[in-house]
Amino acid sequence: MRTLVTDIAELVTNDADGPGLLGIVTDAALLIEDGRVRWAGPAAEAPVEAAGAAAAAERVSAGGGAVIPGFVDSHTHLVFAGDRSAEFAARMAGQPYTAGGIAATVAATRSASTADLEDNLVRLLRQAERSGTTTVEIKTGYGLSLDEELRALDIINRHTDESTLLAAHVVPPEYRDDPEGYVDLVVERIIPAAAGRARWVDAFCEVGAFTEAQAARVLTAGREHGMMPRLHANQLTASGALQLAARLGCASADHATFATEADLAALAAAGTVVTLLPGVEFSTRQPYPDARRYLAAGVILALATDCNPGSSFTSSMPFCIAVAVRDMHFTVEQAVWSATAGGAAALRRPDVGRLTAGARADFVILAAPSHRYLAYRPGVDLVRRVYRDGRLISAREDCP
Ligand SMILES: [Zn+2]
Fold first, then answer.
1. Which of 138-142, 279-283, 395-399 has the lowest mean pLDDT?
2. Strand, coil or helix: what is 342?
3. How far does residue 39's CA lie from ligand 1's centre (Å)?
4. Are 42 and 384 in contact (CB under 8 A)?
5. Which of 102-111, 218-227, 299-308 is the least confident region?
6. How buried is 33 (Cβ within 10 angstroms: 0-12 exposed, 13-18 middle, 19+ buried)?
7. What's the gap in Å between 231 CA and the centre of ligand 1?
8. Distance 138 CA to ligand 1 centre (A)
9. pLDDT over 70 percentage in the chain
10. What confidence tier does 349 reach under pLDDT thresholds 50, 70, 90?
11. What separation in Å is there between the alpha carbon of 113 and the centre of ligand 1?
12. CA of 205 to the centre of ligand 1 (A)
């Protein structure tokens, strides 16, 4: 099965050898074979091999639009029930955000049927795909008991390879007076039972959630059971959580809204990706971190949605790119890289987030001539077609 994509005004390859950060090729073509990128480059320089293969290939015109790698959303919480729009409205009217609102979603999620939870997840996943997302990480964390966390993992594993056990999201109400007892449950029962069913282990290290010592126990136990660690760190307050993420060799430290120069140096030295989540600062009126500081310190930056019903209910990576550029001082190039190759780095996935030979053929055809339009035209749906493994998964053919 071969597909030749032609009429590409601008192809973002994220080729590490350049040119530039995005490896942009203009007037490009892309040859897909059996779900992988076989060749990418200038249409006029298509190798004979590719041109020969093209004869038997299905042809797809990008219509003079840009083609970019599918977005890699490396941080979502899509297994939940309930509605927190009233909490959002109250916050916009002046009430502060705290970690405590998660309890409302825990109660709604526990009382929802598996079918309802899965239907909601599928609906959100389809919305994400329509906006160009082709790889999604999904966390548990609204069940907070042995059975409920495993139920959430089973749902997640039916829809993505990037499953994360976040049993240490908040302390559930029945352990309110015994948080250590809940950490014991996570470490001694939930993590062993989740072994082989979660690729990642995560914890929310924050005032009102878990201490650094508790988070370290959870991530260490997860690693002993074959899960790789990542951490929610420094969302609401400055703490030692970012240094902890670096010390434990986390693939990613997420949020990092508050970070000292020493934190950034430690993360850069450890190769821990920092995943910034613009939807959270947008939806909670927290101050935005300045990406320029992180990049100057040598930190690798990813962008993700943190899609969840409390602090960031968006599944749109283009929205996150626009906010990151406007309010976090990303360059447009850096934002697009962080939403694709950066997310792939945060998930340790060398096969996605790029369009070079051998990569998975996950790509987006934009109804715009350049990746720059993703930030230049905020709120406008510019995603015309989305492909995963070389197969069309979403199309808006009326998109001019
Ligand atoms: Zn999160």
1. 395-399
2. helix
3. 36
4. no
5. 102-111
6. middle
7. 9
8. 10
9. 96
10. very high
11. 23
12. 11
3-state helix, strand, coil split of the chain in percent (to 5) is: 40, 25, 40
The residue among 28, 33, 36 whose CA lies nearest residue 6 is 28
Write out the DSSP string of 94-135: TPPP-GGGHHHHHHHHHTS-HHHHHHHHHHHHHHHHHTTEEE
| Domains detected in the chain | 2-70+354-395 (2.30.40.10), 71-346 (3.20.20.140)
Task: List Cα–Cα distances, 167 to 53, 75, 150, 184, in angstroms.
Answer: 49, 15, 10, 11
SS3 state at 320: helix
Expressed in angstroms and rounded, the spacing between residue 232 Cα and the centre of ligand 1 is 7
Q: What is the pLDDT of residue 323?
A: 98
Ligand 1 mean position to 386 CA, how many Å? Answer: 25
- Specify the residue for token string 């797809």: 60
Neighbouring residues of 144: CB distance < 8 A, sequence distance ≥ 6: 106, 167, 169, 170, 172, 182
DSSP 133-201: EEEEEEE--S--SHHHHHHHHHHHHTT-SEEEEEEESS--GGGTT-HHHHHHHIIIIIHHHHTTT-SEE
Distance CA 310, CA 308 (A): 6
φ and ψ at residue 225, rounded to 5 degrees = -110, 25
- C-alpha 358 – ligand 1 centre gap (Å): 31
